[in-house]
Specification:
This protein has 206 residues and is α+β, with helices and mostly antiparallel strands. The longest helix is centred in the middle third of the chain and has 38 residues.
Length: 206
């Protein structure tokens, strides 16, 4: 029986030659993990809208640094940012005004009660320690927490934008219109007037 020649492969045996090496080299598992940044086709990340809007630089500097084909886009984004900021500011201001009006509509219904309490106090009906005085203090406290302010006192300068003159009294020695008597006190919440003050005005005598 002749010895088999192991130096020469049989026709059915698989030969790992050059083709096998190339297949192994092309196999990702054989190469192991390679960082993405080392790839030859890696592209730089593009700027997002948030990146552009959040950049701490002036409009001129941003446009100068950007590629020429992106100048118009960047200016549009800056304009949209400014318009949105203005919109937020107007919305917040409007919200505050609407909140004050809502409070004012509630407080306005309480003004006649506050007038009755003022009259009762002038007539001595709100004696300290009485039940009526305690109720008056609580009601006035509620109105104050709503932000309601009362204004107009005798001696104040007359302001036709805030005061309603129901009578003018020529008074010797008076050089400018001054509140002589408050007939009905005025109320307001911030810039919103709930009721103008009704007053008697002292004016210079002719």
């Amino acid at each position: 029986m002749a010895d088999k020649d192991f130096d020469k492969p049989d026709d059915g045996d698989e030969v790992l030659g050059t083709e096998g090496s190339e297949a192994q080299a092309s196999d990702p598992a054989a190469q192991g993990d390679r960082p993405a940044s080392e790839g030859p086709d890696t592209e730089p990340e593009e700027l997002t809208v948030d990146d552009i809007l959040g950049a701490a630089q002036s409009d001129e500097a941003a446009v100068a640094d950007a590629p020429e084909e992106e100048h118009d886009l960047l200016l549009d984004l800056k304009r949209v940012q400014a318009e949105y900021a203005n919109y937020r500011r107007r919305t917040e201001e409007q919200r505050e005004v609407e909140a004050a009006r809502a409070k004012g509509s509630v407080a306005k219904n309480l003004l006649p009660v506050l007038d009755d309490l003022d009259r009762a106090e002038k007539h001595g009906d709100l004696a300290e320690g009485s039940a009526l005085a305690a109720i008056a203090d609580k009601l006035r406290g509620v109105v104050a927490r709503l932000g309601v302010e009362r204004y107009a006192e005798a001696g104040d300068a007359f302001d036709p934008q805030q005061h309603e003159a129901i009578f003018q009294a020529p008074t010797p020695g008076t050089t400018e219109a001054t509140i002589l008597e408050v007939v009905e006190v005025g109320y307001r919440i911030g810039e919103i007037e709930l009721r103008p003050a009704k007053v008697v005005v002292a004016v210079p005598a002719e």
